[in-house]
Design goal:
This protein is an alpha/beta fold. It contains 17 helices and 25 strands. A hairpin with a 2-residue loop joins β21 and β22.
């Protein structure tokens, strides 16, 4: 047994400042370097960083006036807004826990998450008042409410015991002078997974984890030699909901950099395209379905998207969609993580040589999963937790260690232990690693199709089918088969004004099988054309719902 080296304690001068990694520290640099930079809401409201920080101080004063105390949970139900950004900081900075409520869950699930997180105060957008009124009787605590309303919004449509309206409360509040120091491991945020099985699970993160995640984003993206590099002259706009993994952590990173930020409110493709062009947006991120929504809008053809860097995550980026985005001039590439990982773990930055290949080759390269971010230990393991060979072919489950992984599930020790079995966070994704250390996600464990004694990747089939010019969206699921156990079923949404040819799609897959790219068992007999595909609350394909529907029919 190896001898442990002696631990040498750090000797601190009594007056030295220990500098805990708290979210308040993210404001030091932008206030010093870019105090007059803008934060914009829907192109209509504009605040400087100096004004935004003043509003955060006022919001803190307002929360204290309402009796909010450290340790309590403040929930927010809003679209992506300057208000949400203010809450990202103000609530945790006074020692409270920010719950970002997924407003796209069902009313019953929203009530469950509010009860499970034990929310004490809810800041609610006027648009969601009927929803909140409908679930109020199911809330277990005597929850208080603050109204969020745009200047042009109509009067509230529900009778709730409001403590006040957000802007009025800020106006009346006295700004706090400073924010306290406390343990950097204190819980800062809670939100709930959007999985398709069982009740949502509460994921939580500390101040220290969020600060380290922010620094890792800037270190990794900022040291890219060219492709996908993030820098201080970027203009940032999220197209990932701020309720989902803190908008993938980018609002914190954008704030620390002091760059211009654009918040679009509720996602409307025409407004998003207008903001991209008018505000000169250069940096964004979204799931593939939202990218498809954006570039499929008629206005996309008249909009200059050539400045835009777009990180795609949440689910696999099909080559067909990647190619369509490249034709619009979007510098599109992938990132990988999950709700439990903060989320960032892997990014796919292309090399200078790869950037000089043609469009078809670029599409193949850009949809790869990528390499681990700084401080992220990413492995692919077998059932005994042994690493599989790094040959690009051997497959296993992807597991993680990094400084910002959730330490468990809120009030659910059994599921938390399952998540962290063996001391590694288990993703539930099947992947492989090549000789250069590049990870490739092959499929979700639950989405792999088991047919003819082989495991077939639904993602690989979707990627091949997406390359047909007449295919807008595609999902491949396994359906029961008496002979083979399961067989793949391809569900295809056609491009508007086109009529895809099922036999042409089958020929494409047969060609891939002949080349050895897929197993011959992976070529589906059934290809069905549908108007739409079921999605989760964050825009991912809901394959559980698709399987339930098509297995019953």
């Amino acid at each position: 047994m190896p001898v442990q080296p002696p631990v040498q304690p750090i000797l601190r001068t009594p007056s030295a400042y220990d500098y805990p990694l708290l979210l308040k520290q993210l404001w030091i640099t932008p206030l010093a370097n870019a105090p007059e930079q803008e934060i914009v809401y829907r192109g209509a409201l504009r605040f400087t960083y100096r004004q935004t920080y003043e509003r955060i101080r006022r919001l803190t004063g307002a929360l204290r006036n309402l009796g909010v105390e450290a340790g309590q949970t403040v929930a927010v139900m809003d679209w992506d807004s300057h208000r949400y950004l203010e809450c990202f900081f103000a609530v945790p900075m006074i020692g409270c826990v920010l719950q970002t409520v997924n407003i796209r869950l069902s009313p019953e699930q929203i009530a469950y998450t509010l009860n499970h997180a034990q929310a004490d105060l809810i800041l609610v957008n006027a648009e969601f008042l009927p929803l909140v009124a409908g679930i109020r009787a199911k809330l277990e605590k005597d929850v208080q409410f603050v109204l969020l309303r745009d200047p042009d919004a109509t009067a509230p449509l529900a009778d709730l015991p409001f403590l006040g309206e957000y802007e009025a409360l800020l106006e009346m509040a006295t700004p706090v002078e400073s924010f306290p120091d406390f343990d950097e491991n204190a819980r800062a945020t809670t939100f709930y997974t959007t999985g398709t099985t069982g009740l949502p699970k509460g994921v939580y993160f500390s101040h220290r984890q969020l600060v380290l995640h922010t620094l890792a984003i800037l270190a990794h993206f900022g040291t890219a030699p060219g492709h996908g590099r993030v820098h201080r002259e970027d203009v940032y706009m999220p197209i990932t909901p701020m309720f989902h993994v803190h908008g993938w952590g980018m609002p914190y990173a954008a704030t620390l950099m002091g760059i211009k930020q654009i918040y679009p409110g509720r996602y409307d493709p025409q407004l998003l395209l207008n903001l991209i062009e008018r505000e000169h947006v250069t940096l964004s991120h979204c799931v593939p379905t939202l990218l498809h929504m954006l570039i499929s809008h008629p206005q996309a053809k008249q909009t200059d998207l050539s400045r835009l860097k777009m990180v795609i995550g949440g689910s696999a980026l099909p080559q067909g969609l990647c190619r369509a985005a490249l034709k619009h001039g979007i510098d599109v590439y992938t990132g990988y993580g999950m709700s439990e990982t903060g989320p960032l773990q892997v990014v796919n930055h292309l090399t200078g040589e790869e950037l000089h290949t043609d469009l078809d080759a670029q599409a193949q390269l850009r949809v790869r999963t990528g390499k681990p971010v700084m401080l992220c230990h990413v492995r692919v393991v077998d059932e005994r937790m042994h690493d599989v060979p790094h040959d690009g072919r051997s497959q296993g489950e992807v597991v993680f260690r990094s400084p910002w992984l959730t330490q468990g599930y809120l009030n659910d020790a059994e599921k938390a232990e399952e998540l962290w079995r063996g001391g590694w966070l288990h993703s539930g994704d099947i992947g492989s690693i090549d000789a250069e250390g590049r990870l490739q996600i092959r499929d979700r464990v639950k989405d792999v199709i088991k047919t003819g004694g082989e495991w077939i990747s639904s993602l690989t089939l979707e990627d091949l089918i997406s390359q047909d010019a007449a295919v807008a969206e595609v999902a491949v699921i396994g359906v029961p088969d008496e002979k083979w156990g399961e067989r793949p079923l391809a569900l295809v949404v056609p491009q508007p004004g086109t009529e895809p040819d099922a036999e042409a799609i089958r020929r494409r897959l047969l060609d891939a099988a002949e080349r050895g790219a897929i197993s011959s068992y992976g070529v589906p007999e059934r290809i069905e054309f549908v108007d739409s595909l079921a999605k989760t609350s964050v825009g991912k394909l809901d394959k559980k719902a698709l399987r339930q529907h098509y297995r019953a029919n």
